[in-house]
Specification:
The complex is a heterodimer of chains A (457) and B (411). Chain A has 457 residues and is mainly alpha-helical. Chain A folds into 2 domains: 151 residues, no CATH class; 240 residues, MetI-like fold (Orthogonal Bundle). Helix content of chain A is 77%, strand content 0%. Chain A contains 15 helices and no strands. In chain A, helix 1 runs parallel beside helix 4 and helix 3 crosses helix 4. In chain A, 44% of the residues are buried. The model of chain A has no long low-confidence stretch (mean pLDDT 85). Chain B has 411 residues and is mainly α. Chain B has 2 domains: 77 residues, no CATH class; 221 residues, Orthogonal Bundle (MetI-like fold). In chain B, strands 2-1-3 form a 3-stranded antiparallel beta sheet. In chain B, helix 9 crosses helix 16 and helix 14 packs antiparallel against helix 17. The chains are: A mainly alpha (457), B mainly alpha (411). At the A-B interface, helix 5, helix 7, helix 8, helix 9 and helix 10 of A face helix 1, helix 9, helix 10, helix 11 and helix 12 of B.
């Protein structure tokens, strides 16, 4: 029985249970009914008890059954001819699986054709076990719940407990995701640091992952130039664009613009935040990078590159502008009007009021917004993949090619089938560093913004 | 010293100072205006350069090719043309060669590699074509297409001048219905668009229920303790984690540990769902908080249980806000590229995916892949695909915002 059919059957069972239980509860409902427990509650309880156990079972089964099927196939006599564990063995097994499922027309290895029937048989057997167990679980669950359909049973309390646990389970997924990120990065990163020492990785100045010396992988995996590239592009150049422009725009919008103009200009600025990053990357690579290169050549810099840090940084800065301006806008708005009016009444010009009264009062919020912007720029991937260089160099020249952490992660994982070479593990180590840095920036930024918000009450 | 300064001099100093301060005021004001104008100017340049390069991606150059199908004597049984075997019959009869020879009489390598498919479809619509000669408008090859649009090689320019009376410009219908191809004139975005739709379906199916239920739990049921704080912190931080980290997670968990297929909309959708969920939670919590306290108190006051209050009163009132937040979150996921690069959705996919586990790509990744191509045909196709993506995002966001405004006005 197919999974879809199975789900359909179980749902139909639950529906039947719902109707029967409701009808049965309705019989005694009018006579002596406990307050709160309506026939519908009984129905829902039976339906949930019929549906949930098979669903949980199927979820678990889906993760373990491929291994069970493979084990059964390996136990057959034909499997004795398989090569030892490795790439060949995995290919043959995958081919046999594809043949058995009818997904591929032919096979390369003759052995996979002999194994295919065994696979099909094992798969069929596993599917029947799954179907039978799921139906049995559903019937047992439904029956147990149905026995409790009595006038003196508080079905509503039970249903409410179920609903509450569903809500709780949904929010636990957030923690699971965080844990998943932290654990998978830490585990793969740990495997990497078992091969390469952390000092070599963090402070080494030579980065050439395409040509790793197997005897000393640490010598060509020094990530300092990669970190430097991210600092140059995302922190120095992008922020040199985003902070003045974003702050200036926020000041103009809150202090100088007429309300009608503000209503039109603000959404236009926010449009910049909604543009997908791949569009920025396309613009950086196709329009800005050649322009920057000719500018560099015109300035007499012979080494000006078409993959310069400046091109990527400028466009990234433009992308960050709306983040900085919207947080700065909010914090300038949060400054009490009395401060501004007081300063203006004392004879200060609007610009003096802004620079000496409003900005200092709004500073924590602005700093928080800038930190959020930095965190976003550091984690930005597509712009640097499209416009920056893949070669890591330690150079402060903005016209020289520069790389970034995110670009290296993509490059290292492109076209790799296995995840246990130093090269691919290095991507997870870079990801670990990136995660730690952005996490620290976010915590700091949120902390500053929250404390600032409380200060003005 | 102060006494020695004459009132006149003091006044002049004062005036000078005032002038200086007024100038500083003007300068500052001018600088902030410059910032806004700069940001808006960037937006304008971006949009202009997309439209300037992209509008031609929606057009194709067509050549009027005189084709004598009657003289070619294609061995095709007319009875088969109505049925399902028509494509196979016409391909087997050597239609492609006939079309190519007809075009070669005008110039070598004239037509797009997919041009004969147009002839095939025309024959299927009108089988009488097989018995006569006709002049067919067929899509030109990349070189001629470039030349007719004004930036071709000298050789192609010469051909285009010679054939000018036969050339016309038409809407590139294949661009919206085709899949990725090695030839720019055959490349289309439907496969990527379908991949995007399948991926978004998975994202929506997972992120919306989980996100709203988590928001309801945090707002309505969560006790104030350390566990709840941990939950809140992890959700707020997940919303700001770089998207590429979710790609690493998807690679390590869904592909590495669970063994799900690479390049599949299923894995892409799961990965993007984890990324979108915290955004939905935050939006949904705001929507729940905006439910009036009077509703809450009235329901509890007449004896509703907390679950009943949430399911029957809070949820219906907060649902429009939750839906708007969800749509905006999904719109962000629709434009996302980085995590999908890591889980292998960057492969060359020449056919639209048929299911959730077929190899697929999505629209932003297709744009990413095409921008690597240097041929002029792909440059304008890339910009045209960007126009489609932006139009899609603008439409989705516009609908969400309009619905929210209307709903808020009604309340």
């Amino acid at each position: 029985m197919s999974t879809l059919g199975l789900l359909f059957t179980v749902t139909a069972l639950a529906l039947i249970g719902w109707f029967i239980a409701r009808a049965r509860a309705a019989q005694f409902a009018c006579s002596r009914r406990r307050p709160g427990a309506s026939p519908a509650h009984h129905g829902w309880r039976v339906a949930a008890f019929t549906l949930l156990p098979p669903l949980l079972f199927l979820c678990v089964w889906a993760t373990v059954s491929p291994a069970l099927v493979t084990d059964r196939v390996l136990a057959t006599p034909a499997a004795a001819a398989l090569p030892p564990p490795g790439y060949d063995r995995a290919t043959i097994l995958a081919e046999a699986r594809g043949l058995a499922a009818g997904e591929r027309p032919g096979a390369f290895h003759p052995l996979s054709r002999t194994l295919a029937p065994a696979y099909a048989a094992a798969q069929l057997r596993t599917d029947w076990i799954a179907a039978a167990t799921a139906l049995l679980l559903g019937l047992i669950g439904g029956a147990l719940a149905f026995v409790r359909v009595r006038a003196d049973f508080a079905a509503h309390a039970s249903v409410e407990r179920l609903v509450r646990s569903t809500f709780l389970a949904a929010s636990l997924l957030a923690i699971l995701t965080t844990l998943g990120i932290a654990l998978s990065l830490a585990w793969q990163g740990g495997r990497f640091f078992a091969i390469v020492s952390p000092t070599d990785f963090l402070f080494g100045t030579h980065w050439s992952p395409q040509a790793i010396d197997p005897r000393d992988p640490g010598a060509s995996l020094g990530a300092l130039p990669v970190f430097w590239g991210t600092v140059l592009i995302a922190v120095v150049i992008a922020m040199a664009v985003a902070i003045p422009v974003g702050l200036g725009a926020a000041i103009w919008l809150t202090q100088y613009a007429r309300p009608a103009t503000r209503r039109r200009v603000k959404p236009a600025l926010e449009l910049l935040a909604g543009v997908p990053t791949v569009v920025y990357g396309w613009f950086a690579a196709l329009s800005v990078a050649p322009a920057v290169r000719s500018l560099g050549v015109a300035l007499g810099i012979e080494s000006a590159s078409g993959e310069s840090a400046l091109a990527a940084g400028l466009v990234m800065g433009a992308m960050i502008v709306p983040f900085v301006s919207s947080v700065a806008d909010d914090s300038l708005h949060a400054v009490p009007v009395a401060l501004r009016d007081g300063s203006l009444a004392l004879g200060a010009t609007p610009s003096e009021t802004i620079r000496q009264v409003l900005l200092p009062a709004a500073l924590p919020g602005v700093v928080g917004g800038v930190l959020l912007g930095v965190s976003r720029a550091v984690g930005e991937t597509v712009i640097v993949v499209m416009a920056a260089s893949g070669v890591a160099t330690l150079s402060a020249n903005p016209f020289a090619p520069a790389t970034a952490v995110t670009r290296q992660i993509v490059d290292l994982l492109t076209g790799e089938a296995v995840f246990d070479s130093p090269k691919t593990l290095a991507a997870f180590a870079l990801g670990l560093v990136l995660f730690a840095i952005t996490l620290a920036l976010n915590v700091a930024a949120l902390g500053i913004v929250r404390r600032h918000g409380q200060a003005h009450g | 010293m102060a006494e020695s300064v004459t009132p006149d001099r003091r006044e002049r100093a004062l005036a000078r100072r005032l002038r200086r301060r007024a100038a500083a005021e003007r300068r500052f004001r001018w600088l902030t205006t410059l910032a806004v104008v700069g940001a808006l100017g960037f937006l304008l340049v971006l949009v202009t350069s997309i439209v300037a390069q992209g509008w031609r991606g929606f057009t194709e150059t067509r050549v009027a090719v005189p084709t004598d199908l009657a003289a070619a004597h294609l061995p095709v049984d007319p009875a088969r043309l109505g049925g399902r075997g028509a494509d196979l019959a016409l391909a087997g009869a050597g239609l492609e060669g006939v079309v190519d020879r007809a075009a070669d009489r005008l110039a070598p390598d004239l037509l797009s590699p997919g041009a004969w498919l147009r002839v095939r479809d025309a024959i299927k619509r009108d089988p009488s074509l097989l018995g006569r000669s006709a002049v067919l408008d067929l899509p030109a090859g990349d070189a001629l297409d470039r030349a007719w649009k004004g930036d071709g090689t000298p050789a192609a320019e010469a051909v285009s001048r010679r054939l000018a009376p036969r050339l016309s410009t038409g809407l590139a219908t294949g661009f919206l219905t085709g899949a990725d191809a090695t030839d720019a004139t055959r490349a289309g975005i439907w496969a990527a668009l379908k991949g995007s739709l399948l991926t978004m379906a998975v994202t929506l199916a997972l992120a919306f229920p989980v996100g709203t239920l988590a928001a309801l739990y945090l707002e309505e049921f969560a006790p104030r303790n350390r566990w709840t704080d941990l939950l809140e912190v992890s959700i707020n931080n997940l919303a700001a984690v770089p998207s590429i980290i979710f790609g690493l997670l998807g690679l390590a968990i869904f592909i590495g540990a669970f063994g799900l297929p690479r390049s599949a909309p299923l894995v892409g959708g799961l990965t993007l769902a984890l990324m979108t969920m915290p955004v939905i939670v935050i939006a949904a919590r705001a929507a729940i908080r905006s439910v009036p306290g009077s509703v809450r108190e009235a329901a509890l006051g007449i004896g509703a249980s907390p679950v009943r209050l949430v399911v029957h009163h809070v949820l219906p009132l907060a649902l429009p806000g939750m839906l708007t937040g969800t749509v905006l979150g999904v719109a962000r996921a629709l434009g996302e590229t980085a995590p999908l690069l890591l889980i292998g959705m960057r492969a060359f996919v020449a056919a639209p995916p048929r299911g959730f586990t077929d190899p697929a790509t999505v629209l932003p990744v297709q744009i990413f892949l095409w921008s690597d191509q240097v041929s002029g045909g792909f440059v304008e196709r890339t910009a045209a695909a960007i126009i489609v993506l932006l139009a899609l995002l603008l439409a989705i966001t516009g609908v969400a915002v309009t619905l929210r405004n209307r709903w808020e006005a009604r309340r």
